[in-house]
Amino acid sequence: MIKPMVTSQPKPSWVIFSQNKGAMIGLVVLLLILLMALIGPWIAPYDPAHQFNSKVLIPPIWDSAGDFQYFLGTDDLGRDMLSRLLYGARLSLQLTFVVVLIAALVGVMIGAAAAFINPTLRSLLMRIMDLLLSFPSLLLAIAIVAIIGPGLPNAIYAVIIVLIPQFVRITQSSISEELNKDYVMAAKLDGAKRLRLLTHHVWPNIVPALIVQLTFSFSTALLDIAALGFLGLGAQPPMAEWGTMLSESRAFIQFAPWTMTLPGLAIFMTVLSINLVGDGVRDALDPRLNR
Amino acid sequence: MSLLQVENLSVDFKTDSGIIPAVDSAKIAIKAGQVQGVIGESGSGKSVMALAIAGLLSPAATMRADLFNLDGHDLTRMSPAERQKLISSNISIIFQEPTSSLNPSLTIGYQLDETIRFHGGGTRKQRYDKAQELLSQVGIIDGKRRYKEYPHQLSGGLNQRVMIAMALACEPKLLIADEPTTALDVTVQSQILDLLLKLNEEHNMALMLITHDFSILSETTDKVYVMYGGQIVESGRTYNLLSQPYHPYTKALLDSVPHYGLHYKKGRRLFNLKGSTPSLDHLPVGCYLGPRCPYANKQCVQPPELRSLKGRKVRCHFPLLEEDN
Amino acid sequence: MFATLLKQLSTLVISLLGLTVLTFILSLQSETPVHQFQSDHVVVQYFEYLQFLLNGDWGTSSIHKRSVLKDFLQHFPATIELIVFAMVLAVTAGLGLGILASTRRGGWLDNTLMTSSLVGYSMPIFWWGMLLVLLFSLTLGWTPVAGRIDFAYDIEPYTRFMLIDTLLHHNQYGFAAFLNALHHLILPAVTLSTIPMAIVARMTRSSLLAVLKSEYIRTARSKGISKQRIIWVHALRNALQPILTIGGVQISIIMSGVIITEYIFAWPGIGKWLLEAVSRRDFATIQGGVLALSIIVIAFNLALDFIGIYLNPRLRRPS
């Protein structure tokens, strides 16, 4: 549709981001969750594993049967929900962070290498990556856990492997795309070395896409780790991991719904705020990636 | 009586940076069968004006007009649905990019047939015959084959012919051609122009030719409007306007094509403007050409009115005289 | 057309080879060998493995001592029933909501829809399923908690599609059994369809809005073609193409989701069968299950590609 021609100054990315209401709310919530994860051990009222045998399944304080000693109630073994959730935040975010970081590092290295290897080999490698990408991520993680066995460390390896192909794809395609642009051709003709080309010209142009992928990988990783925990293939009880807590609550949904709603809410709020921030980052950094 | 008469037509766009006046109090009158031209640079509001007349503005735009008469009907007193119906059966429009103006997922035949169905109709067979007739009228020889093809299989020139055929299917009294040849190869350009003029004669269909290129208008049109910054700055009979531009902008536009224009004299210095076309959200105070105009003085901070001068209209405090040219 | 077909075919072959390599490695982990190989060399063994698969010998479960392929085929219909039902729900509701939102852009319906689709996008399906159970089954008592049908009905598994089998028992139970099966199916299907529905609705809206701004829609409007016709004939056809490209992602989400959904609702399908095998380290079953589910994903992606070619004349008939 024809619009009147208007030439206005492009806004800086952070201005675009800060004008995005959803992204700002997401950022605030995410920072709050991060803060709680950081100071969790100091503000948690109890040891997350300690069982108050006489205080089993006490509801949160907004219930008439609530007990102020246990702000968010206790679970079936009499463990304090608030303490478990706080420790769970610490555990989940730590794991997610490490998983995404390793996956991104490995993925970017493979992707960058792929952009410079011989085309036949590259196309084969990218086909494999496409295959891994087309795989349902949880099914892939389950298959990997099946090989190396259930448990938290193995679940983490599985999620790392699941996340890598995205980074390989993005890095390889952005580098290849940039390498074909006129300015890189010009730099090449000027005799620029490959590595210099990569660091000076190409790298700054793929960083936005990588940052966007990084944020969305956080939510995928968090969800997959929790899902594996929920299915009993990841973190094992009595570990205070959100997915595992959900799994343990299954038998008590009817009598103690808070044991299910609270950890789920924690996962959901974290994922939602990451996704909101991710949407904002994407819109701010690269309008071309916009839906 | 005029076929189309529009007075004080204004179009505003609502954007993030405020309300932008894309067309400002334009006045247009076209008689049946007449060929008129609208000329201006990109961003001058000429395309928006065309869309406004054809009732195709986007929802972000608001349109006002003191008078909007089409074929004897007062459109300002109609509901939007009635207005759209009247416009679509009297006015057709073709665009700059013929290939993207056709639906990529539907065959030429389907799109043509649909248009015929909405304007007159008939049985399947009648519609097919009508479509073939239209295709041959616009100079497409292998109409039977093209009927089954998709826009991406045709060249830009052929697609523009298809667009014209679809326009004809509505049997319009006015055809608006918004830069109909700009995206086409040079040799194809004149073919399309010839076709438009031929159809204008054969069907007594008025033609409004919108362009940025004077050379297209000089031999084809009876009357020309010159637009700048959303306003009509000068209008008049084509021959007069080309041989003796009154508005400095018209003169600059004519001189942008060296060795061209009826006022061209060998050895004369070309006249050009400083700076560039203003953005519509940062229009200067007073005369929009003011900051770029070598003739401007204090009085030009007052917005000039469109006034009559020797049978023409000009929006300038200091119209150029014979000796200035 | 021929070139695209060839490309599809080569992708298919590479995918299947890569996949069988993975499942071959999986099958080698088993303590009791899944297949008896003639050769000692691992590469030759791989080809023998392919031979076994093609002959329909997918190994024998180390726990139940049953044929993996047979076991799979027994559990498969339950999963298919759930997936198909959920997909139909996701696609029809997603498309409908997306179209509705795009025609009322900026209205309260649009805003509500877009917010809820963002929420749906971030929803952990395992929590969502439990919330639905808590609300609809345990609190309101509208739907059954788990399973495919009440024990009161004695249904002979002719096709193993419960909806069909119950209809085949029409003489015995009338429509009661069928309705009971449907009743059991609703909540799992809703659980499974929510996230894809949110994505489809969001995509439909944005894709349709982009298409509605295009020049050929302007042309159609100038011809006086009705609004409904412009959306359904002119816009949707083109808007569907980008939606199809995310169809592959959708099937991935559904396949991951179906495992969790079956786990929550004790739905006797592939997911539950596979999870059991993983926790009991039954490698023959894991290998077969992963292989079968992946083949479904690959086949689905292939089908999507063909629909895409059908919808886009530029691919079907290059100029």
From TrEMBL, chain A:
Family annotation (InterPro entries): BP-dependent_transpt_permease (IPR050366), MetI-like (IPR000515), MetI-like_sf (IPR035906), OppC_N (IPR025966)
Keyword Cell inner membrane: yes
Chain ranges passing through the membrane: 21-44, 91-116, 202-235, 255-278
Gene3D superfamilies, per database record: MetI-like
Primary location: membrane
Subcellular location: Cell inner membrane; Cell membrane
Protein name: ABC transporter permease subunit
Organism: Kangiella taiwanensis
UniProtKB/TrEMBL annotation, chain B:
GO molecular function: ATP binding
Transmembrane feature ranges: none
Alphabetized InterPro entries for the sequence: AAA+_ATPase, ABC_Ni/Peptide_Import, ABC_transporter-like_ATP-bd, Oligopep_ABC_C, P-loop_NTPase
Pfam (any one): oligo_HPY
Keyword line: ATP-binding, Cell inner membrane, Cell membrane, Membrane, Nucleotide-binding, Transport
Superkingdom, taxonomy of origin: Bacteria
SMART domains referenced in this protein's UniProt entry, alphabetically: AAA
Broad class of where this protein is predominantly found: membrane
NCBIfam families: oligo_HPY (TIGR01727)
Name assigned to this protein: Dipeptide ABC transporter ATP-binding protein
Organism per entry: Kangiella taiwanensis
TrEMBL record, chain C:
Domain ABC transmembrane type-1: 76-308
Keywords on record: Cell inner membrane, Cell membrane, Membrane, Transmembrane, Transmembrane helix, Transport
Membrane topology: Multi-pass membrane protein
Cellular location(s): Cell inner membrane; Cell membrane
Bilayer-spanning residue ranges: 12-30, 82-101, 113-138, 181-201, 243-266, 286-311
Entry-linked SUPFAM superfamilies: MetI-like
Keyword RNA-binding: no
CDD domains: TM_PBP2
Family: Belongs to the binding-protein-dependent transport system permease family. OppBC subfamily.
Protein name as it appears in the record: ABC transporter permease subunit
Naturally occurring in which organism (per UniProt): Kangiella taiwanensis
